[in-house]
Amino acid sequence: PQPQLAKGDLLRVYARVAPLILPVVADRPLVMKRFPNGVAARPFYQHRAPDVPAGVRTEVVGVVEERPQIIGGSLKALLYMTQLASISQDPWFSRVAHPEFADYAAFDLDPADGVSFARVLDVARWIRDELDALGATGVAKTSGSDGLHIYVPLPAGTPYEAGMLYCQIVAALVEQKHGKVATTERSVKARGKRVYIDCLQNILGKTLATAYSARASDYAGVSTPVTWQEIDEGFDRTDFTIVTVAARFAQVGDLWAKLRQMKGVELKKVAALT
Description:
three-stranded antiparallel sheet, single chain, alpha+beta, 11 strands
């Protein structure tokens, strides 16, 4: 409402960034977070695919129960979901052919109310330092809302739980060294004015808004890949919106492609720290 943007604006930006976002969601089950009454109203999650039009792929997948879900990868599916008021693209960490094996794991940095984005960038740097010590590299993006996501590639055939444990160990090291700023405490009340390092999105069936995805934030943010140099120098997360990102992506290219090209982290290295 505030920037006076409508569904048509979102459809147009997705059409423009489709070459970037479609490879990221290709062959992955998608969860819809729908806002049929606008971003100011309560949304709802929809896992089960509705009766989709021809050209929108669905497959039967499941965790507790099997159900048909929309599978990403086509422009028609992207625009169809947007028409249903599913603003973000929220894929599984695995592909439909092997849903039990995650391709990557993620740290979700979520600041408490009143905590500045500068503190989020501090925590991101500390996670990078721990990954560097393990000989690993993370790829970062804004969440499109208040936080930041850092993804690490996993070796082929890695169960979700292994990726989650890897992130939890790294997060525990950061908390041990920087406990006044970073926390792994699940209780919102116990976190205080700190940045929560959430590793629980690595559970099979859970999702994060993907790179290049729009979000239902008050500034119409887009989850935007950023370089570590940008994180070191600092930036304003609200610069990345559905109005501005097309020009940025044309300038910097597909920064997220690096994640698909990287070798999986060596899980045994982090196991030695426990």
